[in-house]
Amino acid sequence: MAHWQDQTCVRFEIHDPSVSSLWQHRLKFIKSDGCYSYLGLQSKIGFQDVSIGKGCTRLGTVSHEIGHALGFWHEQSRPDRDEFVTVNFANIIQDKMNAFRKHTTDDVMTNVPYDYNSVMHYGAYGFGIDAKVPTLIPKDPLSMGEIGQRLGLSYLDVKLANFMYECDSHCPGASSCHSGFRDMNCKCRCPESHKGDYCEVVALNFPADRVTLTSRNGEVSSPNFDGSTNYTLDTSFMTYIKGNPDEQIRLKFDALDMEPFDTSSKKCLDYINIRAGGNLYYEGTDFCGNTLPPEIIADEIILSFHSDETNTNKGFHGTYTREKISALGLESYVIPDSSLTASSEFNADHGAKRGRLNLARVGDLRGGWNPMDNDANPWIQVDLLDLYRIISVATQGRQDLDQWVNSYKLAWSTDGTTFRTVQDIPGPGADKIFIGNVDRNTIMTNTLPVSQVCRYFRLMPVSWYKHISVRMEIYGYGEGPVTALGLESYVIPDSSLTASSEFNADHGAKRGRLNLARVGNLRGGWNPMDNDANPWIQVDLLDLYRIISVATQGRQDFDQWVNSYKLAWSTDGTTFRTVQDIPGPGADKIFIGNVDRNTIMTNTLPVSQVCRYFRLMPVSWYKHISVRMEIYGEGLVTV
Q: Which residue range or ranges hold the F5/8 type C domain (predicted)?
C-alpha cells in the first residue's frame, strides 16, 4: 500500500471500527489459496477480499493485486494487445482463459502506451499447459524477459493511476510536462529518456540498456571492454542482433572473463545470457567464467549481460556477420511432390504434398498435411535430393480449418535410413522441442541450435490443436548463387592475409583485396619480392567453407597484373593441394588471369573445394606480379 501511496494520490487507512470514517469501502486482505483480487469497486459499503496467499508476498505481486482493486485490468487484456503480443490460447489452462480475454475501451483505459513492463502484465509462461511453451509471445523479442516483472509499479503504471484518479486536479493551470506527466505534487514526472523541470530535455546520457544491431557485421561486448579494463558492477543491458528474413547471423566469441560459476547457489552471478532463433522465447543459457560460448548461428540473437554488486572481471567480446540463406523450394515447387513423404496420410487429399508453406485448399485438395488419427509416431519428410546445410524451418497451420501443430521435433539424415533428432543446447541427448503455431496462417520460423548438413529432413509433431496439420518451408544453403566471403568487405580481417613475401609493407598481402585503391603510400595491390621463386598469397577464412570461384584484378595504381595462376587449398594450413584440371587428375589447373589493371576476371573451380586456407600462386604476369582478389563460396561447412 505504501508503494502505491508513494507513487500516486491513492490513499489507504487502516480500518478501525471504533473510529468514524467517511470511507465506507473496505479492502480485506486475507491469506487464501493463491493471489487474487476483484476488479475495481465491488460495493460502496462492506468488505472486498484481496488474497495474499502463499508465494504472493513479493512487492510486485501485492502491488498487482491492489492494482486490480483500484480498477486495473491485466495489461494483456487491452483492446490493442494483438499489436504487441501473440496469445497462445492452445497452451492456456482452460479455467484461466478469462485472464487472457481482450476487453474493449469501455472497460480498459488506454491513455498510456502498451506497457511490457507493467506490473499488471502476465509473464510469458503464465498458466501454461506445457510449462516450457509460452502463453504470451511479445512482438518485441527484447521484451520476452521483461513481461511479468513483479518488482513494482512501472513508470506507465504510475502515469495511468495518476490519470485515473486525477491526481493533479488540484494543480493550477494546464499540465506542460511534454513527454512526462504532472503528479500529485504538481511536479513533472519524466520518463528515463527525458529530464528537466518540464521533461523538455532529451537525456543524452540515458543508459543504452537496449541496443538493436542491424549492420552487416559488427562487434558485441560487455561495457568498456578492451581486454584490460573491468566491467562495472551492478550493470544490465540487452543486445538484439536482427537480420532480414532471408539471412542468418553467425556470432563468434573470442573472449570471456567473468565471475566463475557459484557452486553454493549453483548459478552464474555475473553472466551473459544467450537466446537465439528457436530459443528466442525461452529463458536462454547463461555463460560465465572463462569457457567461450559455442558459435551461435540463428536468424535472431539476444544477448543479456548482467553483473552483480560484488566481483568484476574483464567481460566478453565477440563478432558477428549476417549471411544470406534461401528457401530450398517447398513453396516454390523447386522440391517436387515426389520428395514429400509422411508416416501416414489421412487420405490423398491430405497428403504430404499438401505440406507446402502458403499452400491453399483447391477443391478437395486440403490446405495442409494431415496424418491418420491412429498414427502414434507422425512425421512429414522432405528429400532435398542433395546435401544442403539446414539453418531454419518455417511452419503454418492448416489453411482451411482450425488445425495446427503447437510444438515439434526435427530430425535429419544423409542416407534416408539413419535419422538423428536435433538436440538442444546445452545438453546433448535432450531433443530440442520447437515452438509451433497458434493459428492457421501466421508463419512461425525456428532456427536450429546448430545447423545440419543433410539430404533428408523430418518434422515430428509433439503437440497440436484439434488435429495435426502443417505446412512448411526449409531454409539453408543450397547450390544456388554463391556469396563473396569477405575480402572486399573486410569481413576477412587483415590478419588473415599472408604471402610468401612482400615487396615492402606498402605492397603487403593485406593490399590484395578486390577493388582496393591506393591510399597514400599504401599501394593498390599485393606485390612479392622480385627474387621470390615460388610466390603466393594466402587467405585464412577462419573456418571451413566450400570454395566455388575466385575473382582477380591487377594493380590499381600501376600497369602490373597476373596473366595466369594456380590455386591451392588446405584444411589445416600445413598440407596444401593444388586444384586439378578435369579430365586428368595430376595435372594442375592453370587459370586465365588479367589483361589490365581493373577489369575483374572470375574463374570457377572445376570441382568446389571445402577448406579453411586458400592460396593463389602466380604462373605468368605482366611487368611484375600484382593482384587483388575475392573468394566466392557457400556458407560454413561441417565435414
A: 323-477, 480-634
The rounded distance, in Å, linking the Cα atoms of 614 and 547 is 9
- Are 274 and 247 in contact, with CB atoms under 8 Å apart? no
Instruction: Report the alpha-carbon distance of residue 293 to residue 521 in Å, rounded.
Output: 41
CA dihedral 581, 584, 588, 594 (to 10 degrees): -40
The Cα–Cα gap between 562 and 525 comes to 11
CATH topology for the 326-478 domain: Jelly Rolls (2.60.120)
Per-residue confidence (pLDDT) for residue 238, from 0 to 100: 83
Q: Is the pLDDT of residue 583 over 70?
A: no
**Any alpha helices (H) in 443-531, and if so which ranges?**
none
* Residue indicated by cell numbers 501454461: 128
Measuring CA to CA, which residue among 500, 499, 521 is closest to residue 512?
499
The residue to which cell 516450457 is assigned: 132
Active-site position among 65, 473, 502, 634: 65
64 labelled binding-site residue? yes
Which sequence spans correspond to the domains of the chain?
1-165, 210-324, 326-478, 483-636
- Rounded to an integer, what distance in angstroms lies between the CA atom of residue 250 and that of residue 244? 13
Give the 3-state secondary structure of residue 384: strand
CATH number of 1-165: 3.40.390.10
247 counts as catalytic: no
Closest CA to 446 of 488, 409, 404, 489: 409
Q: What's the CA angle centered on 592, arms 589 and 594, to 5 degrees?
A: 150
Q: What 8-state DSSP symbol labels residue 574?
A: S
Mean pLDDT, range 543-548, rounded to an integer: 83
C-alpha cell at 534: 615460388
- Overall residue count recorded for the chain in this entry: 639
- Superfamily of domain 483-636 in CATH is Galactose-binding domain-like (2.60.120.260)
Write the pLDDT tens digit of every residue in 119-136: 999 998 889 888 877 898
Distance of CA 542 to CAs 323, 495, 605, Å? Answer: 15, 10, 20
The Cβ-side half-sphere exposure at 210, using a 13 Å CA radius, reads 10
First to last CA, the chain: 63
Q: Give the three-class secondary structure for 133.
A: coil
CATH number of 210-324: 2.60.120.290
For 590, list phi and psi in degrees, rounded to 5.
-105, 120
